[in-house]
Amino acid sequence: IYTLRTLFPYTTLFRSAEEEAFSLISQRLRDFKPHLTLHEVGTVVSVSTGIARVQGLPHLGFEELLTFPGGLSGIAFNLDEEGVDVVLLGDSAHLRAGQKVRRTGRVMDVAVGDALLGRVIDPLGRALDGGAQPATRSRLPIERPAAPIMDRAPVTEPLQSGLKVIDALIPIGRGQRELILGDRQTGKTAIAIDTIFNQRDKNVLCVYCAIGQRASAVAKAVANLRERGALAYTVVVVAEGNEAPGLSYIAPYAATSIAEHFMEAGRDVLIVYDDLTHHARAYRELSLLLRRPPGREAFPGDIFYIHSRMLERATHLNQERGGGSMTALPIIETEAQNISAYIPTNLISITDGQIVLSPSLFELGVLPAIDVGQSVSRVGGKAQRPAYRAVAGALKLAYAQFEELETFARFGARLDEDTRQSIVHGQRIRACLGQSELSPVTVPAQIAILLALNAALFDPVPLERMTAAQQAVEAAADGLPAVLGKRLADAEALTDADREQVTEAARQALAAFVPAPKEV
């Protein structure tokens, strides 16, 4: 406009355009109001493995999130007059003393929502599967108070694991906390992954939290979930073993908040913590670096509280809160079957039962290697289906008697006929409770096998043919009338006619496996 006015100073058109432009700019200047944002900035004093010492933040709050150069985050833990100790959430190799640190004014939170289903993320919500960042709309703090008692409902609905020994003898209810503990390489993760597989088409969402695991083990678990279509309803939260201890510490809390979002929306959720032994060790490492007083086994005094406040968030909400549930399966690693160690006893006292895995059974090839005698479910029996209660009532007692008689028989004593028959029956129970990995069994098939066990139909079958005999009974259960199959799959009790029909179908299926009597 200025150039054209110079060339054509008497043109009215350009004079009016210039006046309008100056008027608009003047109006914008009069309406402009500057917005000032205050930032409290401190200074890094020292840096150690996973920990930084910061000064110059007098108004900082406990567990407040801080940002460091390079996009690194941290959580304020120790607050004192001289400075603040911060737990770093990532690689701190680039961090140097003298650099600036800024307050965020909020606590650590994580993205939640349906966009996370089928994704593999870290505790900070960043994608680890090579895909785009999940497009979520909501965030929740990783530390949240548990639901009040009056907002909770009793555990009345079962969560089927697909494993016969668990569903029949150690049942799990929706909203329960069932601990899985055992030595290294005894199949703890396999039980949890099988349970996730069995939730397909059962309207149960799953969250798998890997804490301090090897990257290869996590990759194998994710590949199995993706291959069998289970990743579509699962969120995988990963803190690898080579990550900073701060990430391993916040991983289960972030996973719990993700599961809580689904629970509060009225949905049923299964969350697996694999495993809390690494979580406790990461917290012990942080506490020692923070110079907190060590206690038993060098763990800090609040080691019980960090697990209890997390697992108490797993519950079954009443209908006024939406009726959702969160079932927790924490995993603990023991040493030399010592379940009375510090961390295992803590978790046993917090949870509603435990599934104990035995290395001796694992070495014998009994899979899953669950020690039925030491395992217990303190809630699931009330949530167990009536059909299971009818057929599995005497099974645990018979199996316990068999284990005692088997130990006695090893001394070579002469056994009467009843004792020999009890041992034969117990061997068939053990064979029937065995199950291959990644092969969940449907409810009708489980009930058919348990009914056949109670009727001693498996006793004449040779042990080497038990696997094929079970498969025949499962096929017979799939061929039952649709109405009966639906009653078995639902939570209805068995009538005498139903029991007889299922038993007869199992008897016909096992007829081909019973050897013909020898001629005298």
Task: Walk me through what this model shows.
By secondary structure, this protein is of the alpha/beta class. 39% of the residues lie in helices and 17% in strands. It has helices at residues 2-7, 12-31, 164-169, 188-197, 215-227, 245-264, 276-289, 303-311, 342-350, 359-363, 380-383, 386-392, 395-409, 417-433, 443-454, 466-478, 482-489, 496-510, and strands at 41-48, 51-55, 64-67, 73-79, 84-88, 100-107, 109-112, 120-121, 138-141, 179-182, 204-213, 234-240, 268-274, 325-333, 353-356, 376-377. It has an eight-stranded mixed β-sheet with strand order 8-12-11-13-14-10-15-16, with helices on both faces. A six-stranded antiparallel β-barrel has the order 1-2-5-4-3-6. α12 packs parallel to α15 (443-454) and α15 crosses α18. The mean pLDDT is 90.
